[in-house]
Every structure is written in C-alpha cells, then in structure tokens.
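tool_call: predict_structure(chain=1)
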Amino acid sequence: MSQISQSRLAGGNPGNLSQIDALEKPNNHQFAPLFTAIWLFLIAAAVMLVFAINRRGAFLADDYIIINQLTFTHTSFFDNLTWFWRDWGVGVQFYRPWIRLFYYFQFLIFGDTPYGWHLFSVFLHIINSWLVFGLAWKLSRRKAAGAVAGLIFALQPVHAEPVSWISGQTDLWATLFVLASAYCWITFRQSGSQGVRWYWGSVGLFTLGLLCKEVVIALPVALLAYDFVTGGIDRIRQHDDQEPGLIGRMIKLHSPFWLILLLYFVLRFVLFQGLGGYTSDPGQKIDLVLFLKSNLSWLAQPFKLGGTSGLITIGLVLAFLALAGVQERERHRLRHGLSMDEKFTQPTRPAQPDEELDDPYAAARPAPDGVVVELPSYHEDGPPVPYYSLRMAGFGFLWGVTFLLPTVLSLPAERFTYLPSAGFALFLSAALATFSHDTHLGDTRSGWRRRFDYLFDLGLWLRVSAIVVVLGVYTISATNRVQSWLDAGTSVRHILDLTKAVIPGVRNFDRFISEGVPDSNNEALIFRTGYRDAIQWLYKNNSLDAEKVDRLPITVDRLRNTIFLEYRGDRLINHQEIQTTLTQRNELRKQEKSFMMWDFTKQVPSVVSGTWFEPGSTGALQNRENIGLVVQASRSAELQSPEITLSAVQLGSLEITMRADPKGRAYRGEVVWTAGGANPGSAARSNVSFDIMADGQYHTYKVTPEGNNTFAYADQVARVQLKIPEGLDEVIIQKIEQFQIPVDYKPTQR
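tool_result:
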C-alpha cells in the first residue's frame, strides 16, 4: 500500500500539498534550472540550425517598400510613431505603430543591409519558440512535453515565410505578445490571488499585441478557451449555488480584455472611418474551401493530407496512438499489480472556484463554509487520469481555430498560420507525449533509479522514435523551404545587378517597364508589389517609376524617358528598338494609310474566306447588290472580318460607312480588335464603343483603337469584330476600311 493510502487510512491530512509533492515527485529540484536551461538551449540551437542561414538573405518584395519609406519619406522617430492611419504602400491601411517603430530602430542600427534584419527575425522566432515551451510546460506540467512543443514550433516548415521575409516580422511580433500574454494568464490562473502581477502583465501584453497586428483581437476568445478546457463551465454549474458571485468574478477577470478590444475598434473607426485593413475585392471575398484547404495543408507540411498518402499518414498516426496508449495502460497495470479487468476510480470531489478542475494533485482549499474538502480518491497505487495531456491537446486545438478565423477575410498566406501553428504544436506535443504522468504513485525508489527503469519501457521508445522522426522531417523540410527563400534573394540580387550593369545611370530616364521579372520562386516571394521600390532603392532615386509586366506594352507617353527591359534569367535586354519604334509611331499617328478595305457595294458577301461573316450564322446578314451588306438588327448582331495580319504597333483606325433606320436617337455600337494566338479566349483585345446615328442617313464613323497597355509590343492583330446593338431593325453597311500607321515596325531582339 502506498504512503498516500496509508496517510488517508491513518487520518492524515491529504490536503497537505508539500506532503503530496514529497511522495509523488522525484527529489531533483536542484537540477530543475539546469534542465530548463538545457531545453531552452536545444530549442534555440534548432532554430539557429535551420533559420540562421537567413542572414545571407536579401530584401524581398514588400521589404523594399519599407526600406524606401525609411530612406526617403519617413525618416524620423516621430514620423514613424504617428504612423497610425496611413497607407503602407500596398493599398492597405494598417494600425501597427509598434511594427513601424521597430522597423525604424532596425533601420537606425542595420541601415539597408539585410544581414541584421534577418538575424533579428531569427531572434524573435527563438523567443516565440521559448514561449511555446513555457506555455506547454504550464499546461502539461512536464518540461519534456513543453520541449517537444517548443521544438515542433521552432522547426515547422510553414514558418519559413514569416522568419525569412523581413515583412513577416509583423507576425513574429504579434505572436510574441499573444504567447506572452497567454503565459501570464495561465500563470495567474494557476497561482490564484498571489499572481495578480501576472494578470496585469497579461492585460498589458495584449494591449501591445494590438499595436502589432489585427489578428491579436482573438486573444480574449483564446483565454476563454483556456477556462473552458480547465472546466470553467463545470465550475460555474457546481459552485454557483454556493457562491452566487462566481460568475461575476469571472466576468471581472475577463472584462479588461474586452474593454481594451472595444477601445481598439473605436480607435480604428476614428482613424479609418471603418475597420481599415484590406479594401480591395480580392481581400474581401470569403472562400471557405480555399481557406480550409490552404491552412490545413500548410499546417500539415510536409505531410500530405489528401489522396492515398494522406490516408496512409492518418492511419499511421492512429496506429501509433493506439499502440502507445495500450502499452502505457498495461505498463501501469503490471507495475501496480492490477488485473486486466480492474478499473481505476475517477475523481469525486467538485473543484474549488480558484483552482483548475483538471489538476489531480490540487491542494485542498477551504470551501465557502470553512470545511476542508478532501482530495479526489484514486484506486490504490493506480495512475492518475491523463488530465494534463488532454488539456493541452484541447487548448491547442481551440487556439488554432481561434487565431485562424480572423484571417478568413484575407487571401490565404503561409505567414497567417504562424500564430495558429502554436496551437498545432501544443496539440501534436500532447499526442506525442505520454498519456499518463511521468511520476508514479507508490514507487518509493529514488528518482534516478525510477528513470533508469523507465528507459526500458516500450511506450517511451515508441514516442521518442515518433518525436525524432517528426522533428527530423520538419528539419529537412524547413531547411528546403528556407533555401527557397535564399534562392529568391539570389534572384533579386541577380536582377538588380543586371539592371545596374545594363543601365548604369538614370540621368535621362524616369520610368522602367520590365518583362519577365518573376514574382516568386517555389512559393518564396521575389518582387511582388515591391519592384518599383527596389528600382528606387537601387538608384537611390525615389522619383523613378517602375513596373513589371507579362509582356512589353505599347505606350504613348513619356517614351523618351522610358526604358524597356526584358529579363531572361541569365541576361537582361535593353529594348532600345521599342523606344525608337513607339516614338516614331506617336509622330506618324495622324498620317494613317489604308491597310485593307471591304466595299460591300461592289462584291457579293458570303461566308467564304476573304469576306466578313456572322460567327453565329443566325441569318441576320443579307446582300443587296449595289446597295451593301444588310444587317437585320432587331436583335443584336455581330460581324467578323476574315483573318488579317497587322502588327499591333501599326494598328490604326477603322472607318465604317453605314446607315440605320430612323429611330430618333443614337445607339452604341462596338468594334473589337483581337490579337492572334493559340487560345483566342485569352488573346489580347481592344474594345472601343461608338455612337450610331439612327436617322436613315449614311454616316462614316472613325473608330480608333485603344492600344495603350492593351496590346503587347509583339502582338499581331488577327481579326476585327463589329457589334450592332439590338433595336435598329435594319442596318446597311457600304464600306469598312482598316488603316495602319506607317511606322517601320522592328521586332524585338532575340
């Protein structure tokens, strides 16, 4: 019979917490700080092993927007301190003053050298991994389980984006304050009235988190989730009759968080005349299927959840949990001499209002009437129920859901999973850790002898093997993802170096138009919206304009100050011939000459090649000899030219001579020029509307195409369409003539 059981039978006070600690926990407290330091060192080493290589990275995408703002337009502390309601340069209004201030401080220290910026991101990730360790330790009461959670969080491949991308520091800071606030809250809840400083620390850290990113608004819900998994509902149900003020006390504890949140929303309404944030259509659409699919696949990286491989992964996980759980159950039974059919008894006492319900080792506290309540009774020498592991798993699940929901209005991005992934680390650590407490009632041997015996346990090695495999796979996958971001940085440096080599100076230029500049490399961002700012940073000139395009366009303005560049991976081409041709085109636009004419009064239209025809073949077209092409337009009609070949650079106006039956008002017709291509549905086109006078008289309409930024320089126009609106009854077309600009078209150099 164990010493605890003997104490109970002898009438001893089982509520003596020091006695319980002495009986149930190994006497190795003098080594606790050392073990904690070792775990923290291992977590930091894991982060450095995978992410420290980022110090060789470059600025990427939106990073250049931040650097340019700090270099040219917002150079003072006060200017960044008051950056509360401005557009961040990406079409979005954010309220993130803490982030702006730390960008400013980093710029003062590191300047425009990315080395220090990246190391600071790695440092923030280490702090966050330590906080996950502390959070898991508080929830599970086991440092080993906390260490597993910290290592999982430290090495998750999905963290490559926020840690490798300087603009991802927003997520790192927000996560730091949320985790720290949650740690303080749990510490307060576990220490009761003696931990008031932890309570106010949690409130203060939550306030700072709101100054970092909008997703922090979900923290009050996460704190409610903690009370839920620790039996908050049961506590209210069991104690409300005896303590009518219990609900009021719980509301009082949570109310500061909700009050601060309310003030935060009021401030955003004042600053933004609304909530701010993403205002473009893509950022406001809700696609739940895309949201769930993207976030679940990112959290599960590198394991696949779909298809056959996903079923195999899920099957292996279930088999592991079943095998390890059954083995641990039998180990406890054999150790304590229990029969196969004997059951453990469950806790029978209600929990007190100031303690956690799922703590099987909680000290007895005075009840409202002053009577000491007994601790729960267990089967003699039986193991406690796995309260802590279940609590950590439940809280981890609710944490992930809580912090994913605020991102549902935004397009999914890997960095948005950084904060929710802390919950995934807690959940996975609870699954990989042992189900039962790692101390054993009734085992009076020394702590070291007990642990030595534990080394021969099969369940231990099953879990250690699973942890090693998961962390090993995470390390390899995360390293590959980080390498993708390094490769993206190499691409940025290569493109900018080529640009500086081809265009040493910009004295006579103020605009860059570049084709073939990549947006990403294996999901790692390269330029995205930051290309213009990257060019400005390169030449230290914030008056430059730059855009990256899929194909070099036809432009009509600022040609003499424009550079046309084409990036081909290994070289950069300065297309001076485009500038020359388009300049000549602008000068000759008023000297158009006929390219092709169709006179319907002198030929018999038909559906054969060389004539205009009706694509739908509805019978709306008729020919009247010596009169013209007659269109029955009681319904809308569409006419299409035969195939032509005319450079888009040379494309001129279209003249249409026709009459419409008298209607007493004007109608809107439309001309469409379409470029050739393998896929007509995606070909470039120019649509221009014009007024049709329905007065029974012949009129000649001159329709000029909108070539600017519609056609690419290399496009060839293949067909022309004329759309007649419905309601005109009868339209007679006498002549259609296509004009061209007499420019000497020069194909791009290859």
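agent: The chain has three domains: 49-327+384-482, 495-588, 593-740. Proceeding to next step.
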